[in-house]
Amino acid sequence: MKKLLAALLAVCFCGLAGCAKKAEYKVELYAMDTVMTLSAYGGQDAKNALADAAAEIMRLDNLFSASRADGEISRLNAAEGAAVEVSQDTAQVIAAAKAYTQLTDGAFDITIYPLVNAWGFVSKNYTVPDEKTVASLLRTTGANNIDLSGQTVVLKKGAQIGLGAIAKGYASDRVAELLRGSGLKSALVVLGGNVYAIGAHTDGSPWRIGIADPLDSVHSAAMLTVVDAAVVTSGGYHRYFVQDGVTYQHILDPRTGRPADNGLISVTIVSPSGTQADALSTALYVMGEKKALAYHKANPNFDYILITDDYRILVSAGLEDAFTLINTEYELCVID
Ligand code: ADP
Ligand code: MG
Question: Given a cut of 60, is residue 239 above it in pLDDT?
């Protein structure tokens, strides 16, 4: 708890007594391996709600962490085939992950964790595993290695899971629920590349979210206006290593056990569900352009922005009015 308090930084940007009701409060914390910023407009209630939200994120981080020995995922990964009772949150996020594995034909798969580990993306001691190691670790991947019944989980011997591609999305949904439940009408939850916008600004104008440019670490590639939605971006450009002139990024293709390399360099998903947006940003990145567009045709309950390695930005028609291209080196294509 002491650590949490130290990590909290609540700032009221408005010192005037007259604006106590509409002050902006901000909380910054480091959790789930990333910097997070929660901001909300309101009075003391907003400040309290943000502190509760930060505590909720820390709680989920403890549950979901695969590296913390006392976390539920660590316990599961060490169980060697034995049944483990987990919390409702962990059961829910595993159920969602299994559902997305099925929906995405295996492109999203939390059982890829032993490979993520073998490439050094957990320890950050990066290394290219040999083909034999990759082939052997792939034998225990796939959603059929996870048996979930109520809150009891059995991972087949040898299988391990990692929630890195879905935990922040799930946490953003819980935080949005908590903040809305506290009566907040205007808040922005930024969990690294996972953003959740609650309502709009207090003057009614939408939130403006910059879409990172994989080719320019300073300026955004595009700007998106949003109200009441999650905006989640996955890309290889912010977690990678280079060995012998080859770049290896952290999103793996579960079919090969190697970094996905299917022509996309960034995928942003917009959806009222942060969990869906997080899972699909990873999955569509793995699928590549053709399969990603086909997936959206069959499941049109979200919007997307795809950036290709030949400098095109593909935007689903639902975002046309909300989207502004900033880096005009990209060719903009709106897809119906
Ligand atoms: P970020 O970690 O930046 O939020 P993602 O949501 O795309 O990005 O999650 C990527 C992380 O998820 C990786 O660092 C790895 O731990 C794990 N992962 C990699 N490939 C997959 C995959 N195909 N399915 C599920 N999880 C994956
Ligand atoms: Mg993701």
Answer: yes
